[in-house]
Amino acid sequence: MKTSLRALQCFCALCILTVLSAHAQQYERQHEQAATENIPFEQFAEDNRVLFNFDWHFTPGNPEGAERTDFDEAAWRKLDLPHDFQFEQPWGEEHGGARGFKPMCDGWYRKTFRAEAAWKGRQILLDFDGILYYSDVYVNGTKVASSEYGYCGFEADISRLLHYGADNVVAVYANTGKKTGSRWYTGGGIFRDVYLVQQNPTHIGRHGIFVTTPSVSDAQATVQVQADVYGFKKHETLVRAVVRDAAGKEVGRSETTPNQLTKHHHDEICLPVITLSRPHRWDIDSPYLYQVEVEVVSDGVVVDRQHDRFGIRTLEFSPQFGFKLNGRKLFLKGMANHHDMGALGAAAFESGIERQLRLMKSFGYNSIRCSHNPYSAALTRLCDEIGLLVVDELIDKWSDNDYWGGRKPFMQLWPGLIEEWITRDRNCPSVVLWSLGNELQTRPDWSGYDTNDWGITTYRIFDQMVKRYDPTRLTTVAQFPARAGAIREEKEFKTYFAPPELGCATEVNSFNYQWDCYPKYFEYCPDLILYQSEAVTNQLQAPFYGMDRDRTVGLAYWGAIEYWGESNKWPKKGWNYSFFSHTLQPYPQAWLIRGAFVPEEPVVRIGILTGSESLDWNDVNVGQKAYTSFWNFRKGNVVPVTVFTNAQEVELLLNGRSLGRQQNDTTDVFKRGILLWKEVPFEPGNLTAVAYTEGREVARHRIETAGQAVALRLEAEQGPWKADGMDLQYIAVRAVDSKGRVVPGYNESLMVEVDGAASFLAMDNADHYTDLLFHDVTTKPMRQGYMLIILRSQRHAGKVTLKVRTPQLKGTLKLATQ
Known about the structure:
The protein is mostly beta strands. Strands 22-23-24-25-26-27-28-29 form an eight-stranded parallel beta barrel. The protein has a six-stranded antiparallel sheet with strand order 3-2-4-9-6-7, with no helix packed on it. It has a four-stranded antiparallel sheet with strand order 1-10-5-8, with no helix packed on it.
């Protein structure tokens, strides 16, 4: 046994050293200093980090010489980032459903900018949060960086290539990669934010602040600040950290001098511990954030200053109780989705992400699993603010071929990807667990190094790299719904319940689906810290109530929101076995899940069954019963009516007449909260569900027959609209009758006109089977009396007028950016 362990340790060390050697050499080259003299940070503090999203030019395809400074892009389209060029391509059945029936494609971006003469002597960098799928970046005709995995960000030092006091050109090539490079819709292009960064030779490195809280109690908390400082040798250097509370008041500080006795040109410097009295805890109900400001003082002058936020909280995982946050048992009630944003494609607008997160929290969700890649920096930042927990995931498979779209092998690049992934998000209190992969343990070519152990050795190597950058959190890998030995389709599957080997080897044991097998899993491995990393939506509450929630970590409903790609058939453009449409309109069953997640708030919701679909997908039965909450049918129709509730009983009334009461059967996890009236004859008027608990009415839901459409009602969803060129406004347009009821049969074409300090971005009628595009149209049929319009603010405050019309109706909404 000792020999075997020693061999494993040597193998792990060899693998890490081999891949790290190339990574380290590349990293050193990228950070080769262009200047040796520091200047006071205050001289460029306002320009230290500037958003670089505006005034780009774009063309699809790969024109020769597009990287050259003298290339003429006058005919190219002018746009602002973020941008997804793949989503702008026409749909086509021949492209396949996995990646959303969109073609694989490429494109170029160019931007001309002036490098001020005063910048000379500083380090100037470009910081990309992500470019899909792989990319090359050029400055003044010279390649400065490449990326093979667009979900991870990168930076490039461009100091030596700039013409100071003159114009410069940055050109970016992006490619969606090969068709088999992903199992879902990825998008293509510069889909996240870009920044231009200025810094001194002595500075804090990329994601270079790391804050931990080694001890936490109600009386006090200790705060450990670490700063990765470059260029401090040959200078008298001081590193200082100041901690401020949410109101900006200083509550602690610490400082130290780096040890000059090192051959590293940068070092991770740990400052003396700061002790805070009576600390505020970060929690999902009170997401309190502290701020840390780290200054680097060189030869008596402040040469760098960076800020980050952190939260004080404790995380505990155990086979006995699953998960505790701040000592309180908490069950993760989550969703696992891909990263696209409906009509925006993959373009990661912060306000669009916030809209989604706040909706999910309002429905009782407390966690997000980032499937199967790191999401934008905005998502974790927003989860910190809103109070949502994050299971942060690196990748799908550990493969160099299947479902990997980069030009270089993943197994050569993983050290740099893990470093970028972890260091970017490690200060986020919302992140509670690192997930290293997904459904990869059933094939040797998906599970990393060829060690014949279903990925266990590779996991341990990856886990050690994670601990190098963050020793405070545990790691996991989501398992394919198979048994040990990769048994999945064999006849023994239904009687053999040994869990996957890798699933038992990870620190937290994550299993996709198969919740009804978990008691058997515990018989094989009593010490599992079990997390249902994917749960099927078509079983509604069963995966939630079917788990032993006292001893397990939680669950994440797969595809709770519709997304593009992973379609099982044309013309459906993506996954729609969901609780919410891709426009974020809740389906009736979404309220059932809310009733389970927020049991203290009574819920009752009527759903009229309009269709159903069921199929086997990755060895799991998935599908959906489609419900509507409209009461518009033909006379003589007999319709099945379902009522979703968390109350004890429900009475259904048709035009005031009782159709009977039904008890909520809470003993059956498949029937719980679902009451069915199989044959209800349609009558114009109203249908009302009244929910009772202990004989007292606690909630009611009423739907009514709508008349003819007489108006278009426009409602802006967002609050204050920032004039920063980045903020979005979502406007719902509904065709209504004389009493303000939505008319579900109104499907007329809607025309849109926008004037003022905003631009049109997209329009979306929530049709997941559409053949129409979203961005380059200002006319589209309404669907069930509904249309969503998305506007983008400009960079100056002003009034905005939105006008909409159909052949019969029209409406106007006046807004303002500020």
